[in-house]
Amino acid sequence: MSPYEAYARLKFDRPHPRVLRITMDHGKVNAADRLMHGELVRVWRDIDADSSVNAAIITGAGNTFSAGGDFAMIEEMIADFETRARIWKEARDLVYNIINCSKPVVSAMRGAAVGAGLVCGLLADISIASKTCRIIDGHTRLGVAAGDHAAIVWPLLCGMAKAKYYLLLCDPVSGEEAERIGLVSLTVEDPELESKAVEIASRLAEGAQSALRWTKYSLNNWLRAAGPVFDTSLAMEFMGFSGPDAREGLASHLEKRKPKFEPESGA
To answer: pLDDT tens-digit profile of 205-243?
Structure first.
């Protein structure tokens, strides 16, 4: 039995005999509910252990790469300590599992790229976005610290000044701008996105595997070295889910209005 048969929110196909394409597929916007979040954590371990896979592609079904966390899951996190603790561990493992997956990963992002999907999109070894893709780290708009993947990789990709600008203000970054500042590897016109991802993943799949995997391992030591920064940011994010700003942030999203955060909340 294939390990991929047990997945519900992730779909799999082979655009090349040794390339596994993972498609996030949940509703119209691929929001990461409890099930998808858990699947995004463990899929990288399955790929790492699968000798038939030399490279992977991560993409989203339809016109959206990923729309962030499912609001029902966020409500649970705010209300329940056990849920917060479980999702914190998953969020930690998601980042480290991608970093430690020995196989090269290519991301193909179009539409909105937010949340757990964006973790995979920007931690991919080669990230490709359509020119009109909208990359958004919305943590501070939700009322929590920019934990997730942000602190471990944004400053390394686009520099501290740009990282602070986008992570503090939650402004969207277009695909074109993301390429200009170094946040993604390259951009293409939307109709070319899937074919470009397959082309690059196929080249990786046909290359010298030990050379590619050891190069990835070596380069990812930059990310491992930033582990304490990431662990701190993630702890602060999840501490925030127990506070009033997260409750107001979620309410403002549900009510489709501007949040009204307390002027003197937190540290």
So the answer is: 999 999 999 999 999 999 999 999 999 999 999 999 999
The class (CATH top level) of 3-254 is alpha beta
CA 94/CA 75 separation, integer angstroms: 21
pTM of the model: 0.95
The bridge status of strand 173-174 relative to strand 134-135 is antiparallel
| Cβ(174)–Cβ(217) below 8 Å | no
Over residues 51-67, the pLDDT tens digits come to: 999 999 999 999 999 99
Residues in the chain: 267
DSSP 92: H
State the DSSP H helix or E strand holding residue 61, giving kind and residue range, or none if neither: none
Return the closest-CA partner of residue 70 out of 54, 87, 57, 85. Answer: 87
Q: What sign does the dihedral 229-45-21-105 (CA atoms) show? A: positive
**Residue 107, SS3 per DSSP:** strand
pLDDT digits (tens, 9 = 90+) for 92-141: 999 999 999 999 999 999 999 999 999 999 999 999 999 999 999 999 99
DSSP H or E stretch at residue 265: none
